[in-house]
Design goal:
The protein has 407 residues and is an all-alpha fold. It contains 14 helices and no strands. The radius of gyration is 21 Å and the shape is globular.
Length: 407
């Protein structure tokens, strides 16, 4: 899934991302299983999940500031090194049978907090490694590799490894973080004086505001970010009821749910590998509008499906569209945002895009409890239809980028 045409540094970054994603896929389900062994209180188990979801909303913008202040390559390596230490310590605690709910909460929160800085630095670093016209392909390769490492390799192995020894998934996760840190350190150092290699002099708050203002002033990027947030409202709603819809409406056998869910991974990989070709053939903004139309059709088909096969196909197509959208959205920002602002603007994009996800999941849960899962899927399809109409009416190629300084 890598490409020699993208260069040595991209191959190193791709390998680091895949290694880290494999470890994440081992750790995340193992953490849930570990929480279930510590307590059977669903509120406490849910709290562990929430502890891993809050940091991007709390610290995402702050991570963007430091991704613009510090050398991005060294920042990523340092973060992965620290995360390796945290997970290794957790593995030791698990091996010694000293696990408590507090330990799990602190570990989940700390790892997610470190991840906000890593994500901002990684987003800002990629444009320095590949040519601008190769960004959609590079982002697609990153997503495809991560999907395979996480969905096809890591997630299935997590339960098996946990059954062998509860500490094993965490120990392997520590190894993957350490490997990723070494791979990132092997990247070519940036020229002295380039963005991300020297510390800025403004206050943290003024730099956050500068990134937000730049995003808000860039018409197309801001509109795409808002459309992403609206889409995530529907996507999180679908994900919240997916297992119930599959079992109760599509009649997926419980033993076959893993295979059904794998359809989304297959679709995502296909979309990731095709994102670059779509952007090259049609242009990024036209491709974004077309992808929304395809997703709307696929999600409508999913809402109307009543059989595992038709539902699985619709889910795969929808997942492919979602991954294409994410790849093109990221690439568009990386091409149009000045390098010295990439960390902050990218963090602002992600934060605005994610704000609607908890609301979507909560609304879906309440609606499903009151009316069943079928109306939830129908509402998600209607949301995508509305987003598609808005996109086709408002998305246009952006004007040249502007520089806006915080006052």
């Amino acid at each position: 899934m890598t490409s020699s045409a993208l260069g040595r540094d991209f191959r190193l970054l791709w390998s680091a991302a895949v290694s880290s994603r494999f470890g994440d896929a081992l750790r995340t389900p193992a953490l849930a299983l570990l929480a279930a062994t510590a307590t059977r209180d669903p509120r406490v188990i849910a709290a562990v999940t929430v502890a891993g979801q809050l940091p991007p909303l709390l610290f995402g913008l702050l991570g963007g500031v430091y991704a613009d202040r510090w050398d991005r390559r060294r920042t990523m390596a340092l973060v992965d090194g620290v995360r390796a230490g945290v997970v290794a310590a957790l593995a030791v605690v698990v091996a010694l049978d000293q696990v408590s709910v507090l330990v799990l909460l602190v570990a989940a929160f700390l790892l997610a907090t470190l991840g906000t800085l890593f994500d901002s630095a990684s987003f800002a670093l990629l444009p320095a490694l590949v040519p601008p016209d190769a960004l959609p392909r590079a982002n697609g390769r990153l997503q495809a590799g991560s999907a395979v490492a996480g969905g096809f390799l890591g997630a299935p192995a997590a339960g098996v490894l946990f059954a062998v020894a509860p500490a094993l998934p965490f120990a392997l996760d520590a190894v993957t973080f350490a490997a990723a840190a070494l791979l990132v350190l092997a990247l070519s150092p940036p020229p002295a004086g380039t963005p991300g290699t020297t510390r800025r002099r403004g206050s943290v708050w003024s730099e956050i505001v500068e990134g937000l203002r730049w995003l808000r002033a860039h018409r197309t990027l801001w509109r795409v970010t808002l459309l992403t947030a609206a889409s995530n409202l529907a996507i999180s709603g679908i994900m919240a009821v997916l297992v119930l819809y599959a079992l109760d409406v599509l009649r997926v056998p419980p033993a076959g749910y893993g295979l059904f869910a794998a359809a989304a991974i297959v679709g995502g990989v296909a979309g990731a590998l095709g994102a670059g070709r779509l952007a090259a053939r049609f242009g990024t903004v036209p491709a974004l509008r077309a992808v929304l139309a395809v997703e709307t059709v696929a999600l409508t088909g999913f809402a109307l499906a009543r059989h595992p096969v038709s539902g699985g196909i619709a889910l795969a197509v929808f997942a492919a569209g979602t991954v294409v959208w994410n790849s093109l959205w990221a690439s568009y920002g990386q091409r149009n945002v000045p390098s010295e602002l990439l960390g902050r603007v990218g963090a602002a994009q992600r934060m605005v895009g994610l704000l609607s996800a908890p609301l979507g999941a909560a609304l879906a849960g309440l609606a499903a409890a009151a009316y069943g899962t079928v109306p939830v899927t129908g509402a998600a399809a209607a949301t995508f239809a509305l987003v598609t109409v808005v996109a086709w009416r408002t998305l246009r190629p952006a004007a040249p980028a502007v520089s806006i300084r915080a006052g």
